[in-house]
Design brief:
The protein is about 70% helix and about 0% strand. The chain is mainly α and about 190 residues long.
């Protein structure tokens, strides 16, 4: 997926940042839907997978900040922790997609997503415990807020994001990760 120009990757990252503002607005009409379905995570993860780590990091920082400034969601009290979490997601999905090459796109996507989701939650929990909620943060609070409450969102991410990537590849909006080679001299049955 490194065949895209920097301009095209930047435009896709900008669209993902805009989606960080728009998607949560659709979900926040239901109480606690943002914390349950995690709509802002999807565009950040896509940005990292498609555009690479640096632009994924940018989407993870700019998306929640712009959303908070424009819509008030997330609230300023939750914003720093969310920016850390999403920045790690964007950075790690891009990095892992660059280093993982199983020759199967689904495997690469799932390994990158799961690795980024775990890393982001662990780092966000550590930062929350040491900086933002020092002394008032426990393992139970971390596990509940990052895994139990958001479980439906995690399932949605794991089901939806690979399908979106494949749809973008099929529409030729992004390059195919492992293009099929045609041998010259073999009939195309």
């Amino acid at each position: 997926m490194n065949q895209m120009s920097y301009v095209k990757r930047s435009i896709i990252a900008a669209v993902c940042i805009a989606l960080c503002v728009v998607l949560p607005m659709a979900f926040h009409s239901v109480r606690n839907a943002g914390a349950i379905f995690l709509p802002m995570h999807i565009p950040v993860l896509l940005s990292g997978l498609i555009c690479g780590g640096p632009l994924g990091l940018l989407a993870g920082l700019a998306g929640p900040l712009l959303s908070s400034l424009i819509t008030g969601m997330p609230p300023m009290a939750k914003l720093p922790g969310m920016m850390v979490e999403l920045a790690v997601y964007g950075l790690m999905t891009g990095y892992l997609m660059r280093v993982i090459h199983t020759k199967k796109t689904y495997a690469d996507l799932y390994l990158s997503l799961i690795g980024a989701l775990l890393t982001g939650r662990i780092i966000a929990g550590i930062v929350q415990a040491l900086i933002f909620s020092s002394g008032a943060y426990s393992i139970a609070t971390w596990a509940t807020s990052y895994f139990v409450t958001g479980l439906p969102g995690i399932v949605i991410q794991l089901a939806l994001i690979p399908s979106i990537v494949f749809a973008l590849e099929k529409a030729r909006l992004i390059p195919v990760r492992y293009p099929k080679r045609v041998d010259i001299g073999k009939p195309l049955a």
